[in-house]
Structures are given as structure tokens and as C-alpha cells.
Amino acid sequence: MYNYVVFDVETPNRENNRISAIGITVIKNGKISEEFYSLVNPETYFDYFNTRLTGISEETVLYEPNFAEVWEKIEPLMNEGILTAHNAVFDLGVLKRCLEAYDIEWKPYVHYLCTVQVGRKHLPDMPHKLNDMCDYYGIPLIHHHAESDSRACAEILLNYEKDGADLKKFIRTYRFK
Model pTM? Predict the structure, then answer.
């Protein structure tokens, strides 16, 4: 049985190289063991679209820590298991570009799992957007809120596992260097 670090990021603009919020839900021994959430001052501009989608604006994060400050807190968590997200390549790409923007060295690669990819094989006859999967499994969701999205994704993953999905077949490698 693997440990999973399920995470979700919100971004301030379409450049997707900064984070305005991050939610992390850690799964150990088949159970949610820890959660983390923080708003993040991306130190850049906000697009109207992103603010409307997430409810996060420049004013919301004005006095919040920047990514480097948040990274000091979350790096130990991010090392605790297989990184997992709903549409993981997006979240991993944002994380990679944010690490680069702040000149933070991390691992050359990570193992990851995407709950969208698992869902397409495990439940092929249905849509796989996060809100659709939450409706299917009866999971509460405040969509586009990083804390709620990461928790919902973790619960989806646990449901896949309970339903007999062979998650190890979906583990991939993402390169940061």
C-alpha cells in the first residue's frame, strides 16, 4: 500500500507559473492522515477570470506568505508519498514553474498519479471532472477551493481503491529537471 500526497493549486492568472492557494491531503495506510491549506501571495497580477473562478484576489492574499515561505512548511509533506492530483499534469506543471520562479531546488523527478486517468479506466462510461466524480461518490465539494479540491480528490482515490482499482498501474514519473 502506498502513501499519497494529494494536492491542488489555484493560480492567479493564465500564465500558471504562480500559486494563489494550495491544499494538501495526505493518505497513509489507506486513510487521510493529515491536511494542509494556505493562501499564497503569488507576487504577481491576477486575471479577472481566475479571481472570479477561485474567489481569490490580490487583496485576499496581500498579507499572506509567498510561495518560498509556504514551501518551507510543505516540502516535508510533499516528500511523504506519491504526488496525486485530479488532472495531475496541470498541478505538477504549476508546481514546477513556481519552484523555478522562486529558484528553489527540489527533486529531479517525482512519482505521481492522476485521478482523471484512473477514472477513465475504472469508470469509462462517465464524465471525469472533479465535480462529476464528487456527485457520483457523494463527496462534498467547494469547487476551485484548493483545500476542498484536494480533500475531494483524496476521497475519490480512496473510493477507487475500495472499488478494486489497481492504482499502481497508473503511477507515472514527472520530471522537474
Answer: 0.97
